[in-house]
């Protein structure tokens, strides 16, 4: 499997596309610039099967409806944030000068940690709250990657001063969930460059004090 990173929107939120050799793919966090993302998928003959949201902050959901409608695919989100999609106060867009950014209700609600199979793709769904109460990370063992949203960044961690955030919870999520993955697992961060679990164990100043 291969992946592609597309930073989108004013906050350069990373959307990710994980695809197999047949061109089937999963789209993670289509945060903005829906037309650009759709054009990219069609240009590269990629066929989305689903949209997986790591969480429902406005900069991760802005293009959800455009992409969902273009390909008639389901959207997945954790139950703790299912109401955030339609509420600009909950998802934060009202507070950051972005206008009201909303999306229709998700098609599939994640209620617990589980194995999620979509077509030929298999993910371990990890509940990783702290940045937000419904943050989840999707680990694909076959590809050796984890899509962590805004939980863990290269040499940093997600902010915890937004609704439902908790630094204590965030650190526990990283240490008890993400840091149990193999060291060579590539971390697909919600902003900025990719990193690895092993690198962050050794060098992340927020986790190695």
From TrEMBL:
Residues 12-191 form the Metallo-beta-lactamase domain. InterPro entries: MBL_Glyoxalase_II, Metallo-B-lactamas, RibonucZ/Hydroxyglut_hydro. Coiled coil: none annotated. Its cofactor is Zn(2+). Keywords: Hydrolase, Metal-binding, Zinc. It comes from the Bacteria. This is MBL fold metallo-hydrolase.
């Amino acid at each position: 499997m291969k992946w592609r990173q597309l930073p989108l929107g004013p906050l350069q939120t990373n959307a990710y596309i994980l695809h197999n050799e047949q061109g089937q793919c999963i789209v993670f966090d289509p945060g903005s610039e829906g037309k650009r993302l759709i054009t990219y998928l069609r240009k590269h003959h990629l066929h989305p099967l689903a949209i997986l949201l790591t969480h429902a902050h406005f900069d991760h959901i802005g293009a959800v409806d455009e992409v969902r409608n273009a390909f008639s695919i389901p959207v997945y989100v954790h139950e703790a944030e299912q109401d955030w999609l339609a509420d600009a106060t909950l998802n934060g867009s009202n507070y950051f000068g972005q206008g009201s950014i909303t999306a229709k209700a998700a098609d599939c609600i994640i209620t617990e940690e589980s194995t999620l199979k979509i077509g030929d793709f298999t993910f371990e769904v990890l509940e990783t709250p702290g940045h937000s109460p419904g943050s989840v990370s999707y680990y694909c063992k076959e590809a050796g990657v984890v899509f962590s949203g805004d939980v863990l960044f290269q040499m940093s961690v997600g902010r915890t001063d937004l609704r439902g955030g908790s630094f204590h919870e965030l650190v526990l999520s990283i240490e008890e969930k993400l840091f149990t993955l193999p060291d060579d697992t590539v971390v697909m961060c919600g902003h900025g460059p990719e990193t690895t679990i092993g690198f962050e164990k050794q060098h992340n100043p927020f986790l190695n004090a």
